[in-house]
Amino acid sequence: MDSRRAESFSDGVFAVAITLLVFNLLAIGRGALSYRSLADAWPQYAAYVVSFLTIGIMWMNHHTLFGHVRLIDRPLLVLNLVLLMGVVAIPFPTALVAEHLTGPNASGGQPAAVVYGIVMIVISLFYNAIWEYLVRHAGALGTGATRRLLRESMPMLGGKRLPGLRVPRWSIGLGGYLAGVVVALAGFPAWALAIYGLLAVFYLFNHLPEPVTADEAAQAPPAP
Amino acid sequence: MDSRRAESFSDGVFAVAITLLVFNLLAIGRGALSYRSLADAWPQYAAYVVSFLTIGIMWMNHHTLFGHVRLIDRPLLVLNLVLLMGVVAIPFPTALVAEHLTGPNASGGQPAAVVYGIVMIVISLFYNAIWEYLVRHAGALGTGATRRLLRESMPMLGGKRLPGLRVPRWSIGLGGYLAGVVVALAGFPAWALAIYGLLAVFYLFNHLPEPVTADEAAQAPPAP
Amino acid sequence: MDSRRAESFSDGVFAVAITLLVFNLLAIGRGALSYRSLADAWPQYAAYVVSFLTIGIMWMNHHTLFGHVRLIDRPLLVLNLVLLMGVVAIPFPTALVAEHLTGPNASGGQPAAVVYGIVMIVISLFYNAIWEYLVRHAGALGTGATRRLLRESMPMLGGKRLPGLRVPRWSIGLGGYLAGVVVALAGFPAWALAIYGLLAVFYLFNHLPEPVTADEAAQAPPAP
Amino acid sequence: MDSRRAESFSDGVFAVAITLLVFNLLAIGRGALSYRSLADAWPQYAAYVVSFLTIGIMWMNHHTLFGHVRLIDRPLLVLNLVLLMGVVAIPFPTALVAEHLTGPNASGGQPAAVVYGIVMIVISLFYNAIWEYLVRHAGALGTGATRRLLRESMPMLGGKRLPGLRVPRWSIGLGGYLAGVVVALAGFPAWALAIYGLLAVFYLFNHLPEPVTADEAAQAPPAP
Predict the structure, then answer these.
(1) Beta bridge pairs of residue C71
(2) Phi first, then psi: what are they for A5, rounded to 5°?
């Protein structure tokens, strides 16, 4: 199947999922409304912003991922469908965090922040799985770049090592979400949300290497 | 009318319908939230996963179906509209099953699982009707393959016989959903949902024959 | 502006609006669920089917309308936006009718069916306004057909006269919705919904004249 | 990244956000329904119309903005994402205004109208920021027009001066929303909503200068 089909369907799903986040805000202002009640709803705004930026980044990375290939086969379609199943679920932990960080239901803040982190970790793992599949089946999927070049240009979750460190860069994302889960379990769910937000901002402004094309690969000097 | 128009509209409807499934999850965690209440919501997660995979497969098959034709006429538009009417309704039986499998409303689990199966059977029949229409009007719809070749390549619901059996393959889908309805009527609605989920997984990993094109048909050896 | 831009945005709006109709169904089965309660919800199913077919037809006619032009100017964009404002509102009278035809709130069935008809009449009038605009500015909008040919091929609401009658065909639609409003005011809101449904089915199966292109117009024999 | 990708994703977000406004209307008619209760819901209709036209205009201006460029880089993607975060939030102040202008919760009308204005001001500022970015990076983003020509053709918020005035035109939009906030703070939230609506109608019918292309710029006479 031509990969544009799946990309355009995925784009639609991303666009609807990101827009449904507004339902978090719509819960504000039922009943009485005052400047005080609007200010007390800060977890709703915070959760909205963090999840909006997170889905936005995921959409960008989705494009970078599928920009590598021209074709898509059945296993890749299935992997993509499961990935989307995670993305579409994001408004759920978002609502959990927004409703339980403060107020009468604040005892639920800890499980809410833990669920949020777990959903993000699962999505990250599926991004990794799709990338691995792309790298291993590069030829059949219509990309001419060699496996090593592809692996080195892996976006966000990628194998590109940070300068001076021997830890692959994608560990930052997974490690950050794991740290958020630990912080939530330690009893600080609001700080966990702050960590998730910082991860989103970090990836927003971190310009990642674009995929190398077959032409560029042919002209590239031999890697050391 | 050019078939791409109808396909792109259908893609939008599929994308919105699959994303609206998250409203099932949003019902979790109203009021108090704990790890226990999150675990008790397993029917919500199960119904979400089953319906997500099911709509995803239906989207793939929709593409395979309409990949056969370049044009679309008024009867086909009407058939497609009625098919979409079924797909868009899927969040309804999903919510029924999710809310009534367990808990205080568990007496409704049986009718919920029956309604789920009936909606799936109706959708399957409309997929069949569209396929029949495509096969019978292949020429006018811009496909050059012969009727017999088209019939043999019917996706999912197709006329391709299983090895060693004289039963057409689409009987599996219809038979499976019928079995789910019977199991639900016998008093085991959770097992009915498990059957619906297995059907989705079966079709996900079952690589179905792609449509034959006119060129391939011309080069194909005469069928026995 | 290129008309494809506005068409693709409109397609998205139609796709979301038609899919949001499922929220009518989601109201069923809150609380206890039984075969009886499922059967008692027939106004929900009826309203869902009628509105789904109606929006589906409106989408088809929208394509036929904008299939006449290549360009779109600011007044046409504004007319289209107001038309979409009516289409997006359809789930509102749909919910009114579904919730108030029967049950404890049945006294609201009459105003509900009246509102439904009025929304449809307003939408029909805007389709007419767009058509008039298209006909009058045919040259500037990139269609080569003459004004008279365009007017005669007006879809659904069109000036094509019914055989043996001197009444333009679009009177059927407007007249039908007006009749529904009158029937509702007379105290029979369920019959009004039946009339709205019959109108949808009538237009589904009524193959309307496709727009004539400039080439066809040039080859057409002089009209009598 | 090719700018069409981001535009098509943005179109999807706009289409879903504008359609979700119908949820404001769906709150009408819960419980008893009568012609009186329908008439009493006028703030719902007013808020629906104002927000629908406003999002519609924003979609048109979004197209005009991105019609200037062929490419899109990471900072522009981030700016666009934050802009969309504002657009998606519009149903929230819309619901606040609709629910609190009249009725038992009318004391919340003032903060509701203030929040509405603030959201609009924030969105306007981000439109300005995107425009500034486009003007400053015109070369790298694939537009050949000079910076001054681009600046003069800025849509809606633009630097084109009104005849006889030395105030840039975009001050009207920002000034109007600021005036609405002041009017709301003075205790007249319904008049604030009227101002927001007049701003939308003003921009609907105000034909703004289309972006100049590189070719036009080359042929343009030297500006005085």
Answers:
(1) C2
(2) -55, -55
C92: nearest CB among D11, D22, D34:
D22
User: Residues of A at the B interface (Cβ-Cβ below 8 Å)?
Assistant: 1, 5, 8-9, 12-13, 15-17, 20, 23, 74, 77-78, 81, 84-85, 88-89, 91-92, 95-96, 99-100, 105, 107-108, 111-112, 115
Percent of chain C with pLDDT over 70: 76
pLDDT at B29 over 80: no
pLDDT digits (tens, 9 = 90+) for D80-126: 999 999 999 999 999 999 999 887 777 889 999 999 999 999 998 89
Residues of D in contact with A18 (CB under 8 A): 13, 84, 88
Q: Tell me the percentage of chain A whose pLDDT exceeds 90.
A: 44
With beta carbons under 8 A apart, name residues in chain C contacting B7: none
Place of tokens 């339902």: A23
Nearest CA in chain A to B206: A74
Q: Count residue pairs from C and D with Cβ separation < 8 A.
A: 84
Q: Are the Cβ atoms of B28 and A92 closer than 8 angstroms?
A: yes
Chain C CA closest to residue D38: C111
Q: Give pLDDT, residue A158.
A: 40
**Predicted complex ipTM:** 0.85
Tell the residue number behind the tokens 């997660």, with chain if given.
B45
- Chains near B, with 3+ CB pairs < 8 A? A, C
pLDDT of residue A106: 77
User: Where residue B194 falls among pLDDT bands split at 50, 70, 90?
Assistant: very high
Q: What is the dihedral sign for C-alpha B84, B85, B91, B94? A: negative
Q: Any idea where the domains of chain D sit in the sequence?
A: 3-212
Q: Do D29 and C108 touch (CB under 8 A)?
A: yes
Which residues of chain B does A88 touch, with a Cβ-Cβ cutoff of 8 Å?
18-19, 21-22, 52
C-alpha span between D121 and B117 (Å, rounded): 50
* Percent of chain D as helix, strand, coil, to the nearest 5: 70, 0, 25
**Interface touch A52/D81, C-beta < 8 Å:** yes
- Note the pLDDT tens digit of each residue in B204-220: 765 455 554 444 444 44
pTM: 0.88
Query: Is the per-residue pLDDT at D217 higher than 80?
Result: no
SS3 C2: strand
Report whether B14 contacts A9 (CB < 8 A). Answer: yes
Q: Where are the beta strands (DSSP E) in D99-166?
A: none
Say yes or no to pLDDT of C102 above 60.
Answer: yes
Q: Helix %, strand %, coil % for chain A, to 5?
A: 70, 0, 25
Task: Please list every residue in chain B whose beta carbon sits closer than 8 Å to the beta carbon of residue A85.
Answer: 48-49, 52-53
Give residue A171's pLDDT band: very low, low, confident or very high (50, 70, 90).
low
Q: Quick one: angle between helices B3-19 and C3-20, nearest 10?
A: 40
Q: Which residue in B has a C-alpha nearest to residue C29's C-alpha?
A: B96
Q: Which H helix or E strand runs over A19?
A: helix A3-20
